[in-house]
């Protein structure tokens, strides 16, 4: 790939290559420049290069190169100058369209030139041979050779442009314009297949827009401008689909419009809705969906009456007449009577879809959907005043078909009205979007409806009728058509009748009490009786009903008051919801502004970085130019030396010559040599052409003579084979007649044999059927028994699990109660032990006080104080106060420390130690060291160590 110092050099190089006829090399050079990463900064020269690039792509029909170049150019100028890509794409589509039109005009001119009187004189041998070989006419062949390639390239151009511009908020206007031009291309040249593909492409673009919501430069459908562009595109798609009579694609376009508005939760403007319903009623009429067609007319009438201020009374009357006739054209019975469950579910789903499309409620819920039916449609016509706006003929026809009771003269009344209606219609001047109205297209449906109503009312009045009489009272159809209509009505449970051709009569069946006919008769009879009673006993006049109305008035006031309060609260809630939505919108706008600011800052940073990179690249380019200048000077010296050797004058101007100029000179020399070689080859080809022509002129008479000989031989062979085939056919025919006469005698035996075989097979079939039924019944009984057994086993297992669970719960409860009881006993025992210890400590304190008093008395009488451990022998023995054994035991018993368990053996040892201490307190002197309590230290005296002894004993027990 060639590199260029500046974009202008690439453009200049491409023009030079184009001038010398090397368009492919020029295209490759420009493609390399556009896809190169060195030239990413947009300049005005880039736009000129793209213009030249798309010219080459169109001229050479290189759609893939054009797509690659436009994608690269979009990345270059999207953030800098988005208008440049728009101009380039417009120029690209303009060139492709001009080329296609030019090819089409050339094909037409060629066809007109061939369209002359003397065809044999003008036809060339090549044309004759092509027509014999291919079987094509001249126009088809010229279209295939000239027009089709350019149409294919134009279609590829539209697809490429739509793919480049898709889902870009900056290019959505150009995207919409391209889609419109593509629709017009399909419409102008009747390209139905391309139109379907185009609709699918646009549909996929919208689906991707909803799928990838974090895409950069994603269009915002909530913006009014974007939404209007998308809506205009879909409505143009709908119009072209109806004009091309692609009704299925038109219905899908209607669904696209409804889905688009459901996304944004908005309703289009009334003019667009008029177009919507006008196209929708055409679709339903072509699909023979008369009910939906009538509902579309009703919606169109409502829109025109509400929003079209220029609507005249005549146009309003014509639209109302269409609504009433479309409603009457709906069959009066259910076409799905006796259908399967799957068919009913599919029809229900289809009805819900179409009711959404007709109602165009973008926030519809399942419980609020209206059920579409003929009866509800007729009620809407009366309640909304459509019937009052219709013409007098339409009103009379409606009253006869819906309310007339006498059947014999119904057809005589209906036929003149239908004749008048068939002549009505025309273009609605004040509603340009509404198609031309022709009431005559409803006449066949109305004739069928009149026949059905006549048969229904005849069946309510008569039990039987002759076929001739029925044919006379139905002037619309002959009896075969009436029979077909009656069969459909009986099939759909609208009539009950039998046709007997042997008697030439029609018998009408009886209906049950719940049938619609008898219900109508009973209600009519009740109304007649009420009227007769009113005439016989007229109501009293002048009686005041104020007293009766006062309680109802109070209740009504209370209800109205409650309704007003509820309405007030609802208004407040709606105001709060609206304020909340406004706050959310403000927050979203603030978030968008911050996001846009962030994007702008990032773009600025990228711009500065790109400028820095551009300056760096310029510096590198200057160094490269200096290096190339040095190389050019070296080449200049070599060229001077080579020119001196060959004797040629060097065309060099010193310092002004560069390496590029020298390469161009060498290239021009190569081109000159190549052109000389091509001239030699052309001269040789011309010589060979003359030689070949001379050879063919000499061989032509020989070939013609051989052809005539071969023709005579084949003609003789054909006559011989024809005679042989005639004789063989005559013999085969005679043999076949004999075979027919021989086999005709066995026809009766064949029938008897066939009947016998059928009877035997029928008996075998009945026997096998009975065996299969018995086997099925046995299997059903065995399965019922297995099911009952399994149910009993499950019941037993469930009860057993419940019992085990109940036993476990009882066991756990018992253990819990036992634990609680033990805890309670332990707490009581601990409390008793604490009480005993407290009493013991109190007793010890009392004993200590008594001992202290006794010592004080002794010390007060004796002057010399003996040693604590060696008492005097002269000292009188002080007898301690008598202590009962129970008190001594309680005193000697140690208090349990920290409420711990004391074994019985230790309790006995503690009791014996307490008895020993008491005996020592009763003696005259202290006991010997060997008789002291081994649990107490020897330094403690018997009189003052009672509490300490208990404390040490308790510690030893704890250990």
In short:
With 959 residues, the chain is mainly α. 75% of the residues lie in helices and 2% in strands.
What can you see in these coordinates?
The chain has 959 residues and is mostly helical. It has 30 helices and five strands. Strands 3-5-4 form a three-stranded antiparallel β-sheet. A two-stranded antiparallel ribbon has the order 1-2. Helix 14 runs antiparallel to helix 15 (313-328). The protein is extended and about 175 Å long.
Which regions contain 5 or more consecutive residues with pLDDT less than 50? 114-123, 128-138, 645-656, 862-901, 916-959
* Strand content range: under 5%
Largest β sheet strand count, sense and barrel closure: 3 strands, antiparallel
Mean pLDDT: 78
Shape: extended
Total beta-strand segments: 5
Give the distance, in angstroms, between the N- and C-terminal Cα atoms: 102 Å
Helix content: over 70%
The count of helical stretches stands at 30
Q: Widest sheet: strand order?
A: 3-5-4
Helix/sheet category: mainly alpha
Radius of gyration, in angstroms, nearest whole number? 58 Å
Descriptors for this entry?
959 residues, disordered C terminus, 5 strands, single chain, mainly alpha
Q: Secondary structure elements and their pairing?
A:
Elements (H helix, E strand, L loop, with lengths): L6 H13 L3 H13 L8 H17 L2 H15 L4 H33 L4 H4 L2 H10 L3 H28 L6 H17 L3 H20 L12 H20 L3 H18 L5 H17 L3 H18 L5 H16 L12 H19 L14 H10 L2 H4 L2 H12 L6 H13 L2 E2 L10 E2 L4 H19 L2 E3 H7 L5 H13 L5 E4 L4 E4 L7 H21 L9 H101 L12 H86 L2 H115 L23 H8 L11 H19 L23 H13 L1
Antiparallel strand pairs: 1-2, 3-5, 4-5
Helix pairs in contact: 1-2, 1-3, 2-3, 3-4, 3-5, 4-5, 4-8, 5-8, 8-9, 9-10, 9-11, 11-12, 11-13, 12-13, 13-14, 14-15, 14-16, 15-17, 19-20, 20-21, 21-23, 27-28, 28-29
């Amino acid at each position: 790939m060639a590199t260029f110092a500046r974009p202008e050099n690439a453009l200049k190089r491409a023009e030079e290559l184009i001038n010398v006829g090397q368009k492919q090399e020029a295209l490759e050079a420009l493609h390399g420049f556009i896809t190169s990463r060195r030239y990413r900064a947009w300049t005005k020269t880039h736009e000129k290069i793209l213009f030249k690039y798309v010219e080459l792509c169109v001229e050479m029909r290189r759609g893939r190169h054009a797509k690659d170049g436009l994608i690269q150019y979009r990345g270059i100028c999207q953030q800098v100058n988005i208008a440049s890509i728009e101009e380039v794409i417009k120029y690209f589509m303009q060139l492709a369209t001009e080329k296609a039109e030019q090819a089409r005009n050339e094909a037409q001119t060629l066809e007109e030139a061939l369209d002359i009187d003397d065809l044999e004189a003008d036809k060339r041998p090549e044309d004759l041979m092509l027509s014999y070989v291919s079987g094509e006419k001249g126009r088809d062949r010229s279209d295939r050779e000239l027009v089709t390639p350019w149409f294919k390239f134009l279609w590829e151009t539209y697809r490429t442009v739509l793919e480049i511009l898709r889902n870009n908020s900056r290019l959505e206007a150009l995207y919409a314009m391209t889609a419109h031009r593509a629709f017009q291309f399909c419409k102008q040249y009747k390209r139905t297949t391309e139109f379907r593909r185009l609709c699918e492409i646009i549909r996929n673009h919208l689906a991707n827009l909803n799928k990838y919501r974090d895409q950069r430069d994603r269009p915002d459908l909530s913006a009014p401008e974007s939404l209007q562009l998308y809506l205009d595109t879909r409505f143009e798609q709908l119009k072209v689909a109806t004009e091309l009579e692609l009704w299925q694609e038109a219905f899908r376009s209607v669904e696209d419009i409804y889905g688009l508005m459901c996304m944004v939760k908005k309703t289009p403007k009334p003019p667009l809705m008029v177009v919507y319903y006008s196209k929708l009623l055409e679709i339903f009429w072509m699909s023979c969906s008369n009910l939906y067609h009538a509902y579309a007319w009703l919606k169109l009438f409502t829109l025109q009456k509400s929003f079209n201020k220029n609507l005249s009374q005549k146009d309003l009357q014509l639209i109302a007449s269409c609504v009433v006739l479309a409603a009457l054209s709906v069959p009066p019975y259910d076409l799905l009577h006796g259908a399967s469950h799957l068919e009913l579910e599919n029809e229900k789903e289809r009805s819900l879809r179409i009711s959404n499309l007709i109602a165009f409620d973008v926030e519809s819920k399942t419980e609020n959907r209206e059920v579409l039916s003929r009866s509800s449609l007729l009620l809407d016509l009366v309640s909304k005043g459509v019937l009052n706006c219709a013409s007098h003929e339409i009103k009379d026809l409606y009253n006869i078909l819906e309310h007339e009771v006498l059947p014999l003269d119904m057809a005589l009344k209906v036929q003149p009205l239908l004749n008048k209606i068939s002549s009505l219609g025309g273009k609605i001047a004040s509603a340009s979007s509404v198609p031309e109205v022709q009431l005559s297209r409803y006449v066949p449906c109305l004739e069928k409806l009149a026949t059905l109503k006549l048969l229904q009312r005849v069946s309510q009045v008569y039990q039987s009728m002759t076929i001739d009489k029925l044919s006379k009272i139905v002037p619309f159809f002959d009896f075969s058509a009436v029979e077909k209509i009656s069969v459909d009505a009986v099939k759909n449970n609208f009539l009950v009748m039998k046709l007997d051709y042997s008697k030439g009569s029609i018998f009408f069946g009886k209906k049950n009490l719940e049938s619609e006919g008898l219900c109508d008769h009973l209600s009519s009879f009740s109304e007649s009786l009420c009227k007769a009673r009113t005439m016989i006993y007229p109501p009293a006049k002048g009686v005041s009903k104020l007293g009766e109305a006062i309680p109802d008035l109070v209740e009504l006031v209370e209800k109205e008051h409650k309704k007003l309060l509820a309405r007030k609260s609802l208004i407040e809630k709606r105001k709060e919801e609206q304020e909340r939505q406004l706050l959310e919108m403000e927050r979203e706008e603030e978030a968008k502004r911050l996001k846009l600011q962030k994007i702008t800052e990032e773009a600025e940073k990228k711009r500065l970085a790109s400028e820095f990179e551009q300056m760096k690249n310029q510096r590198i380019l200057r160094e490269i130019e200096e290096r190339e200048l040095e190389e050019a000077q070296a080449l200049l010296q070599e060229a001077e030396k080579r020119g001196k050797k060959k004797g040629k004058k060097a065309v060099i101007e010193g310092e002004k010559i560069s390496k590029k100029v020298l390469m161009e000179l060498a290239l021009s020399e190569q081109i000159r040599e190549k052109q000389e070689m091509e001239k030699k080859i052309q001269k040789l080809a011309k010589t060979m052409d003359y030689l070949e022509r001379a050879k063919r002129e000499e061989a032509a008479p020989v070939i013609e003579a051989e052809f005539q000989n071969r023709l005579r031989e084949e003609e003789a062979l054909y006559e011989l084979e024809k005679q042989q085939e005639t004789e063989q056919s005559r013999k085969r025919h005679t043999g076949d007649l004999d075979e027919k006469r021989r086999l005709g005698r066995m026809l009766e035996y064949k029938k008897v044999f066939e009947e016998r075989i059928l009877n035997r097979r029928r008996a075998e079939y009945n026997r096998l059927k009975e065996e299969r039924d018995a086997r099925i019944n046995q299997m059903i009984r065995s399965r019922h028994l297995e099911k009952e057994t399994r149910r009993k086993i499950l019941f037993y297992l469930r009860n057993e699990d419940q019992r085990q669970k109940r036993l476990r719960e009882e066991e756990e409860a018992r253990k819990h109660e036992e634990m609680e009881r033990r805890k309670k006993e332990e707490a009581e025992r601990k409390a008793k032990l604490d009480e005993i210890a407290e009493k013991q400590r109190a007793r010890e304190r009392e004993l200590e006080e008594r001992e202290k008093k006794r010592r004080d008395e002794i010390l007060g009488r004796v002057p010399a104080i003996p040693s604590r451990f060696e008492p005097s022998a002269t000292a009188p023995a002080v007898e301690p106060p008598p202590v009962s054994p129970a008190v001594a035991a309680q005193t000697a018993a140690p208090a349990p420390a920290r409420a711990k368990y004391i074994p019985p053996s230790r309790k006995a040892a503690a009791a014996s130690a307490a008895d020993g201490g008491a005996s020592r307190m009763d003696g005259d002197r202290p006991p010997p060291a060997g008789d002291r309590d081994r649990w107490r230290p020897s330094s403690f005296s018997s009189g003052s160590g009672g509490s300490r002894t208990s404390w040490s004993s308790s510690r030893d027990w704890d250990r």
